[in-house]
Design brief:
The complex is a heterodimer. Chain A is an alpha/beta fold. Chain A contains 17 helices and 16 strands. In chain A, helix 8 (197-211) crosses helix 9 (222-232) and helix 12 packs across helix 14 (326-335). Chain B is an all-alpha fold. In chain B, strands 1-2 form a two-stranded antiparallel sheet. In chain B, strand 1 and strand 2 (81-84) form a beta hairpin. The chains are: A alpha/beta, B mainly alpha. The A-B interface holds A 42, 45-47, 49-62, 76-77, 79-81, 217, 219, 221, 259-262 and B 17-18, 21-22, 25, 29-37, 40, 84, 86-91, 93-95, 97-98, 100-101, 113, 120, 123, 125-127, 129-138, 141.
């Protein structure tokens, strides 16, 4: 009983991603809960009927007007109800309910409810206002005792047991780089990149819609396209060369996608063209340098003698980095921005399961006892403590 | 238009395959794709020039049955309790009715609509707002189709369910139609005619055991909302009393009314009166008369 009690008073690591929400006990190898960061409202139907009206009122009634489903449960209705992403909407009210819904799934005993410190993984660009709102939720609404905002990069780098390196985190909503040298970071040596997973999905949707011939009735939406992207996307070393080969009859990239309605869609060069905007943002009308150049710029912020150390530890993280072949292409493209001497030292680390790497890093850091600083205490609990001390003195 | 047998066969095989896929999609709660597929199928059938009307109707019936079967499958009885996935149920109905509204066949739309309405009547704490919205949205279609009898029927039903009048253009249109028909009748038959129309709603939707009480309730609800041209007729309703003893006398009046309606070309109302007579005869066990 006592060991269970101790177990349930361990900190909880929370990663609120745009795509996935991860929650679990610090010290574990893997998040206990990985849920899509989505919710649906039972009154918000995709299909708006102009033929019959009033069914919602009759069946559901006005009392349960706010009836939401979260995460995996929400996705069950993704073809009926409008799927919302609370992170993108900055909807803290929903986040609160979403968190509580998943917190209950941890089966924490009654006496240990809301007794755990919380480690929140944050990207470096998270505004103070957002942190304040999270603190307000965890302290005032749930009454957790302590909170720690841990930099995502710090978590990632600790997973690899490195002290120097550059983290390239390609998420669904944001892409950013962050560098560390001997455990220190530099505010100048980090940057965001304007292309993330959602932009690639939109690009693929455009590519697919463009290739559907007239008269062929194919129905595609963003969610299906995202699934196609996750299954079929590739990154090749030279896209133009591969397109030329396809024109000459090369069939290696040909795939057929079976859509839910029984129709099938052929896909070929689109599989690798999808990753090209990362190297040439102009393709999606974004006036910016490519990912390799942006990475090299961030490295160049440091002194020249440190470049080798940083180049040998380029860490890919985030779900958007799962495109097969991305690391090889990045290696070649990054090498173009450095001297021949440095080229050999370029090493890209792309481990499997890298979409969860920041959560795992935070968990590891706690297990190693390296998270003793930076905790913020719930003002309410310190007030309670003071009151207790005061009562004790009086007695 | 003549087409080869192979083309026909190919079309029908394709149709069958797509129906199976659509049913699987429905079971998997993939309404968006299923309705897209079924809508495409409907359009394929309707734009097809070589399918005869009967075959088209048959194929459209297969599609509407797919929806109907799915909607019914969502209502499950587990350990004596009825469990329904309301999100799927509501959306499926909305999409189903949208499909039916696109068909030329109003009969199907009306039938399924009435069927659903009968289910609502059984709900104990029925939302007034919901049922008003539902009946009025259904009335839009009836109004468009010129189905004024059904419009009157639904507006009476709505009054009963709400226990009040919901003034809308459909309510006024239904009274207007009723008024126009009444003006064609000889004055002594008008109140009886209105009585029959009101009572029919009670019988058709099985609203109350005592249909004369139903007529009394409706009369009370509507009395202050009546236009001038209907006031007299409605005010005399309370004088009509149909029971086992008075029925034989009233039957004669009803026969006259039927003949009168037939003479002035208002045949469509006759069925309502016959339905009422039949119900009364069953109630009073006048099987002999029923046979006659």
């Amino acid at each position: 009983m006592s060991s269970e009690n101790n177990n349930q008073q361990r900190p909880l690591v929370l990663d609120i991603g745009s795509n996935f929400f991860r929650l679990g006990w610090a010290g574990n190898d893997y998040p206990d809960i990985i849920a899509p960061s989505v919710y649906v409202d039972s009154n918000d139907y995709l299909f708006a009927s102009d033929v019959i009206d009033g069914l919602e009122d009759i069946f559901i009634g006005e009392k349960s007007a706010e009836n939401q489903l979260f995460g995996h449960e929400a996705l069950k209705y993704s073809n009926i109800l409008r799927v919302h992403e609370f992170k993108k909407e900055n909807n803290y009210n929903i986040f609160m309910k979403f968190f509580f819904h998943h917190y209950r799934q941890l089966n924490i005993s009654e006496e240990n409810q809301f007794k755990q410190p919380i480690i929140v993984i944050t990207p470096f660009f998270m505004p103070e206002l957002e942190k304040t709102k999270l603190k307000d939720i965890f302290f005032n609404v749930f009454d957790f005792p302590e909170i720690l905002f841990l930099s995502e990069s710090q978590g990632i780098i600790s997973t690899f047991q490195k002290t120097s390196g550059i983290i390239v985190n390609i998420g669904e909503e944001n892409t950013y780089f962050s560098t560390f040298l001997h455990g220190f970071s530099n505010a100048m040596a980090r940057d965001t990149f304007p292309i993330a997973g959602k932009d690639l999905t939109n690009y693929l949707l455009n590519l697919l819609l463009a290739q559907i011939s007239h008269g062929k009735s194919i129905f595609l939406d963003n969610r299906t396209t995202k699934e196609i992207k996750e299954k079929f996307s590739l990154c090749v070393l030279n896209a133009e060369e591969e397109i030329e080969r396809i024109k000459n009859g090369f069939t290696k990239y040909n795939s057929s996608i079976d859509l839910p309605d029984g129709t099938s869609l052929g896909i070929s060069s689109e599989r690798f063209i999808i990753s090209e905007p990362l190297f040439n943002p102009n393709l999606i009308h974004i006036d910016y340098i490519g990912l390799p150049e942006a990475i090299s710029k961030v490295i160049r912020v440091w002194e020249r003698e440190n470049w080798q150390e940083l180049l040998s530890n380029i860490i890919l993280a985030g779900g958007g980095s799962l495109i097969p072949g991305l690391e090889q292409r990045l290696k070649i493209e990054i090498s173009k921005f450095f001297s021949e001497k440095l080229r050999d030292s370029i090493n890209i680390l792309a481990v499997s399961g890298r979409e969860n790497v920041s959560w795992i890093g935070a968990s590891v850091l706690w297990a190693q006892g390296k998270l003793s600083k930076g905790w913020e205490t719930n003002p309410k609990s310190s007030e309670d403590q003071e009151q207790e001390d005061f009562d004790h003195l009086n007695n | 238009m003549t087409v080869s047998l192979d083309t026909k066969q190919e079309f029908l095989t394709g149709f069958q395959k797509k129906i199976i896929i659509a049913r699987k999609l429905l079971i998997g709660a993939n309404h968006k794709w299923a309705s897209q597929l079924l809508e495409n199928l409907r359009m394929d059938i309707e734009k097809n020039e070589w399918l005869d009307i009967q075959k088209k109707h048959q194929l459209l019936m297969i599609i509407s049955n797919s929806w109907w079967m799915y909607v019914n499958s969502l209502v499950r009885r587990e350990e004596g309790a009825v469990k329904t996935d309301l999100i799927r149920y509501i959306d499926a109905y909305k999409r189903f009715f949208s499909f039916l509204a696109n068909l030329d066949d109003f009969y199907l739309f009306n039938n399924f609509g009435i069927n659903l309405l009968k289910q609502f009547i059984k709900i104990e704490d029925l939302s007034q707002q919901g049922i008003t919205k539902f009946i009025n949205s259904f009335s839009v279609r009836l109004f468009k189709e010129g189905e004024y009898q059904k419009l009157i029927e639904l507006q009476i039903l709505l009054m009963f369910l709400r226990k009040s009048v919901a003034p809308s253009k459909f309510f006024h249109a239904s009274l207007e139609k009723l008024g126009k028909t009444i003006l064609k009748l000889e004055p002594s038959k008008r109140t009886l005619f209105i009585y029959m129309i009101l009572e029919d709603v009670c019988i058709k939707y099985n609203l109350m055991q005592d249909s004369s009480e139903f007529v009394r309730i409706i009369n009370k609800i509507i009395v202050n909302r009546l236009p001038q041209y209907l006031k007299n007729e409605f005010s005399s309703i309370s004088r009509i009393s149909i029971n086992e003893r008075s029925f034989t006398t009233i039957l004669g009046d009803l026969e006259d009314l039927i003949n009168y309606l037939n003479d002035i070309g208002e045949y469509s109302w006759i069925i309502i009166i016959i339905r009422n007579i039949f119900a009364k005869m069953q109630e009073y066990r006048s099987y002999y008369c029923t046979l006659i």
